Amino acid sequence: MKLDLTPFTYDGTKDFHLKDWDTNVPEADRALTRDAIKAAIAEDAAALAKAQGKLYAQKRYSLLLIFQGLDAAGKDGMIRHVMSGVNPAGTTVVSFKQPTAEELAHDYLWRTRVAFPPAGNITIFNRSHYEEVLVDRVHPENLLAEHLPGIDAVKDVTPQFWLRRYKDIRQLEHFASRNGIVVEKFFLHLSKDEQKKRFLDRIEQPDKNWKFSAADIRERRYWDDYQQAYQEAIAHTATKRAPWHIIPADDKWFGRLVVSKLILQSLAKLPLAYPAVSAAQKAALHTALAELTADHA
């Protein structure tokens, strides 16, 4: 299935306004059926598995997938469905929770750097270092626990503070890119009405009660603040090397299709190949074949 992916990517080369980006299926794609979308995702999963095999064997590049979104945006389901075909041996999912005491004792990007994928691997961040310019932007009081010089009260957090953090993040991602790590960032763009519907489902459907958290409802009160924080973060950190993909998340299956296509598109740009076999290795293969053929035990 072919899909025009250009409407879902922002690389920082023009102005960015989050309100201009759809949370639902674009009109051009509304004729797609659920069955067709699921079949396409299954095909993409098989293609991703083949590409991962080359990525893992070659050990020259790696892939870092960053998923961000408000509560109930569908990050867990997205990762589960889109990455269903990958080899677990070469894949790691990292979920960044509230920082531990050890993490708070280091710089705010430390726990991100140590989780970057090794050569040949795929690492998936379920939330990421962007929490440091999203949650902390909405709740700047969190910064008081980070042992930051000159930050002794919330009033010490100036607009320049956030600009420096955006610069740090851009430089970190460019460093990763220069070292063979392909960085793809996905914001699951959910509408406020759809989030309310999903929260109600979690309350009203017994098999979804376990997903409900009162903290999610408290954070919903800061909806407008989070929208502004995401707009600023995306506008200041999208680059050609590490673009942001704005995924319409009101329709979970369509969003999954777009993400699977974008990941394959990214991998297709790499010169992936299985390692060439040298003459000496070929000779060793022939020797081993001869020995096994002669072995009748």
From TrEMBL:
Q: Does the keyword Membrane apply?
A: no
Q: Please give one Gene Ontology molecular function term for this protein.
A: kinase activity
The reply to whether Manganese figures as a keyword in the UniProt entry is no
State the superkingdom.
Bacteria
**Key words of the record:** Kinase, Transferase
Residues in Polyphosphate kinase-2-related domain copies: 33-268
> What is the name listed in the Swiss-Prot or TrEMBL entry for this protein?
PPK2 family polyphosphate kinase
> Which source organism does the UniProt entry give?
Lacticaseibacillus baoqingensis
Starting at the broadest rank, the lineage of the source organism is:
Bacteria, Bacillati, Bacillota, Bacilli, Lactobacillales
